[in-house]
Write a structure and sequence with these properties.
The protein folds into 2 domains: 3-164, no CATH class; 181-270, no CATH class. Helix content is 60%, strand content 4%. The chain contains 12 helices and 3 strands, in the order ααααααβαααβααβα. The protein has helices at residues 3-30, 35-45, 56-67, 86-111, 114-135, 139-164, 199-204, 213-219, 221-226, 237-245, 249-256, 264-271; strands at residues 181-184, 230-233, 257-258. The chain has a 3-stranded mixed sheet. α4 (86-111) packs across α5 (114-135) and α6 packs across α10. The protein is globular. The protein starts with a helix and ends in an 11-residue tail after the last helix.
Length: 282
């Protein structure tokens, strides 16, 4: 039907459903209440959001949370990058886009089991072949409904992860309280993203149900601040990344920071410097 309908579909899908679906997928991957629904999401819906069938758990659950943003085995670690430099983010995104199909199976083979590495490789490459085959039959459908969502989703996923792990304390990069931050209040959009703004809580208690995350932070907020956790009010993690990349760090601190650090501006700048060595998790 031409490019315009496809472009409009893609734009509408991203604007209306991308954030909510991917965070739904995120939490159903951690806590599955229905094997049937989990199967349906992983095998039927995921491809239309640019995710190869049943592979998200290998990336997020088996790698990101196990390795915890650490070099070398978390292939999406933000540590080696200057995290207020947009060009560094582009390199970060392109690494994922172009090499995840090689790096993730290798990491799974080396750090999980050989069987899991083989299964993941079969899932990825059979899916890519299926998309290639389908393109020969329905090129417009395949391009706009499967291929372009893969490109845009990878960008948005990596932008979100880069933003969430933008302020990493180089003195304790493996500490959950120091490798992410928390977004609270109106404007954090936690009601739309399954409380993903409580990202420190999620890393600290990955099996905690999303409805309990706000209470976990509210009951222990003093401990979070004492351990160096960074808290923003009235903004979500995507906007935090946008403000940093557009040079609005002073505005971010003035309008959204909540905490005890009187030198928070210097702290944030310090935490965005590259970390070339991390404490590996064995």
């Amino acid at each position: 039907m031409g490019y315009l309908p496809g472009a409009l579909y893609l734009a509408f899908m991203i604007a209306a459903f991308m954030g909510r679906f991917t965070l739904l997928l995120h939490y159903t991957t951690h806590i599955s209440s229905s094997p049937t629904i989990t199967w349906y999401i992983s095998w039927i819906i995921c491809p239309f959001f640019g995710l190869p069938c049943d592979t998200y758990r290998y990336h997020h659950l088996y790698m990101h949370h196990v390795e915890n943003n650490q070099i070398p085995w978390d292939t999406t670690t933000t540590n080696p990058y200057q995290r207020d430099n947009f060009l560094h983010f582009i390199v970060y995104w392109l690494r994922h886009l172009l090499f995840v199909s090689f790096e993730l199976p290798y990491r799974t083979f080396m750090r999980r089991t050989a069987k899991d590495g083989i299964v993941l490789s079969m899932l990825l490459y059979s899916y890519y072949y299926f998309v290639y085959w389908l393109y020969g039959i329905f090129p417009q459908f395949t391009f706009w409904c499967l291929f372009m969502p893969y490109v845009t989703t990878s960008f948005l996923f990596m932008f979100g992860n880069f933003s969430q792990h933008m302020f990493v304390n180089p003195d304790s990069p493996d500490c959950n309280y120091n490798l992410a931050y928390i977004c609270i209040g109106e404007g954090a959009n936690n009601d739309k993203i399954f409380n993903d703004g409580y990202h420190i809580v999620h890393h600290e208690h990955s099996k905690l149900h999303w409805t309990k995350m706000a209470d976990e932070f509210g009951d222990n907020w003093e401990e979070f601040l004492e351990k160096g956790a960074i808290v923003f009010r009235g903004i979500d993690n995507m906007m935090v990344g946008i403000m940093i990349f557009t040079g609005q760090i002073e505005k971010l601190v003035k309008n959204h920071y909540v905490g005890l650090d009187e030198n928070i501006l210097e702290t944030l700048k310090h935490r965005m410097k590259p970390i070339h060595e991390s404490k590996p998790t064995f």
